[in-house]
Predict the structure.
Amino acid sequence: MPDIRIGPARGRRAVSRPGAVWALPAVAFFAFFALLPLAVAVGLSFTKYNGIRLTTPQFVGLDNWTRMLDDAPLHRAVGVTVVLIVLAVATQVPVSLLIGVWAAGPQRMRAAVTALYFIPLLMSTAAVAVLWASLVDPNFGLPAALAPLIGPDTFFSDLLGEPAAALGLVAFIYLWGASPLHTLLYQGGARAIPETLYQAAELDGAGRVSQFFHITLPLLKHTMVTSTILMVVGTFTTFDLILILTHGGPSGATSNLPYFMYDRGIAALDFGYGSAIAVVLVVIAGLVSWAMVRASGYDKMEGTQEGI
Amino acid sequence: MRTRPNWPAGVLAGAWLLIILIPVYVMLRAAFESRETYADKGPLGLPTEFTLDNFAYAFEQGFGRFMANSVIVAALTVAIVLVLVPPLAFAIVRSDSRTVRQVFKVMLFGLAIPAQVVVIPVMYLIQYIGLYDTLIGIALPTAAFAIPMSTLILTGAMREIRGELYEAMAMDGSGPVRTFFRLVLPLSRGGMATVVVFTALNAWNNYLLPLVLTRSEDVRVATLGLGVFQQQYSLNVPGLMSAILLTILPMLLIYLFARRALIRGLMGVGGK
């Protein structure tokens, strides 16, 4: 804590501090609307429930949980979720890092250009999904418009029809929509690096590439941790993009866990099973959160600058 | 100063700029073109005409109402967060109570858990308290799940307030309430702006919660409106693009007027 205390007793008496009661309203609200649903999810996961208000959930023991063990489409959804996360990190980290470091340069022109990069940031995921759904439409989108140039029947003409292509497309659109935020983070991180370090390196005869690997990259470590965790969380919970663009298809190739939960739990009115999936999602998200808090030192009650 | 041109980086930046801008161009041009012209020239044609008919059409499809609903949900969510989080952050930063800090740590574990994940029990809860198919029913859980991140942002901003200022307030005989309103709130305005922007964007972008928690067209929000529009009229590309542009407008306003808050918050400075 940054407090300056002259003597233990005096410091405490001189500055009257807020009691725990100040925290109470927010904690109570959070408990009711965030923690209670978690408890309800655990409860519902042991029931069969069709989500209709007038019917009561019916206790079925561990049925939903054992069902998860040999539900092949669910296992496939886990795989899709992991692949999407890996693709997101593998594409977004290099793009945001390079563009962010480039944009942090002192040239004035770069600031103007950088503003253009942030346009996707203004769009909701739903808007991004609807825009791209229209762009990749085989009959009215870019494939048809580019047909005279690249030929009528290429890889690009039906991206959503091929399992691997559809998954790649989802990752690409996610890259398009989310990389501006991460570019912004890296730009901020790179701007905070003292110019003198580069001047010293230049005197030592270090080239640009060497400077990037020996100064920029090590000093962006915290930015990278924060940004990567945000990416993982964001990709892990991607839902609207998949619902709007692919409906999980073709044949489940893009159905990640949140979409699977919606499709099987909510749309198919099987809320008990959906809740069991939700509990699994919460446990994974909690672990990610825990890793995030540990990696960034949020829990150490320090300023947050070091973390980001 | 490093002013030597960096060609490889420049080329990469230019290529990525094109990837970003082509869809934006397609959207902007199509939104202001008639359906006939668009059908004639396809997505990549040059702009030849200017019409606002598509926007009129989007409004006929109810987009004015959907946008208003989204604004209401965002405003309610922001209001709830702004009432609840500043006192909590104040307590975390200034309280001697160990319980408060433990509570904060517990809350941080909720950082990565978005409301979407627990949508089924949230739906159960919202139905149970009779708020199904209402806008406040969307705002309440959205606000609850925005609390951890907002608290993190605001505690960051409040830690920047120097200890001497608190002591000066105490010399004047101020209690916690007066200190909170006279010192802490005014000096954490930047952090508050960041919290407002983030909470509003969260509420504005939400899709799954409104999808599951509402049913009527009266309470449909803009994101859902886009989804429905796309399902029903996917052939009307200009209409669809104008609807997307409409949903961007409020975000653009936030970006223009609160860009500093957004960027400072992202970089963890918290603002002052």
User: Anything to note?
Assistant: The two ends of chain B are 29 Å apart (CA to CA). Residues 61-266 of chain B form a domain with the MetI-like fold fold (CATH 1.10.3720.10).
